[in-house]
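EI: anyone free to look at a 383-residue chain?
SC: sure, send it
EI:
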Amino acid sequence: MKEKGIQYPRIHLVVDNCFAIKRWVEPADWMRKVQQIGNIRYIQASTDNEIDPSHNTQAFRDEWVEKVRKCEQEMGLKVVSFYSGYATYRTVGIASLSKEKRQAMIEKYFKPTVDVAASLGAQVGNSLSAYSDTVLQSPELYQLTTEHIESSLASMTAYAGKKGVTFSYEQMYTPTQGMWTIDGCISCLRNVYARAGYPLYLTIDTAHQAGQALFLRPTPQEVHQMVKSGDPGTWRLPDEVKKAICDRQPADRVERLLDRYSYWFAEPRDADLFEWLGTLGAYSPIIHLQQTDGTYSAHKPFTAKNNATGIVKPRDVFAAIARSYERPAPEGLPPRVTDIYLAFELFFGITASTDEIISDMRESVAYWREYMPEDGITVDKLI
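SC: here you go
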């Protein structure tokens, strides 16, 4: 039931054309495949599918935009967002200790992508940073790198904002990737909004809670046992902490070291998809959909087989999003979004047949359409 005075968001279903990478690379080709999937109008364009500006020219991008516009008009489809893919995911990007490398990522990748998105009235989202192990092993380097990331994000957010493009950064699930805890994301969104004067938003992924449970801080009792045995066991800990345990240093010394490396650890709620949606869904204009059993992010489709063991159920997702609008807003965050695009981000191996891909995509869309028969319905009406 809708609570009085709350402006719930409109919900839309989207397909990310990452399913088409290396198979259907021309706009007319992947748009026709979206038509074959059926019952879906909106598309998220993966920059991996031949539009990464690092690998093409301005002339190519201009021609690509015209092809997309023509297909949109002829097929009744609409590209509503652009998202980074594996090409940029496999680098530390704006977390580099090199200013030149950080600036190159912004100038050569981010800004041209925003320009293309602006020409089509679309959003932009990405994940362009990672902390190297060298950085994670040094609290001082970690703090410096976090400043580099937030400074870069502020510059990027301002550029997108001035172009009228909504920009969101993807939530991840290990300390290496960053943006992996609820409190950490709130802090980043708040800091960047204050610095940029334009809102940075978040992209929640429905399976990006699979790693946080591996990085919980040991309890004092567990620390005492490790020190007593001189063995950190399978705990994922900084090298300095593991050495202190192996040397059987006092437990209070180990606890102080754990405080020093607090950024290594998540809270139990960070491993819960519905805590993420219930807290930050209102700041996620794009939410990536994939089915999962909660232990792995494999970008699986919503087939009957996967749904039997999957935790991502449409009504639970809708209810959690609604809660994020009913709760008090964390101080200093940008305005809550009025539209949320649920985007199928489904990957298929190179050996998958084209028939299998389209069938799994079609089944995924049909499953969600059982619970949201059309786009633009406010989330409170879907519960």
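EI: The domain at 10-213+271-382 is CATH 3.20.20.150 (TIM Barrel).
SC: 👍
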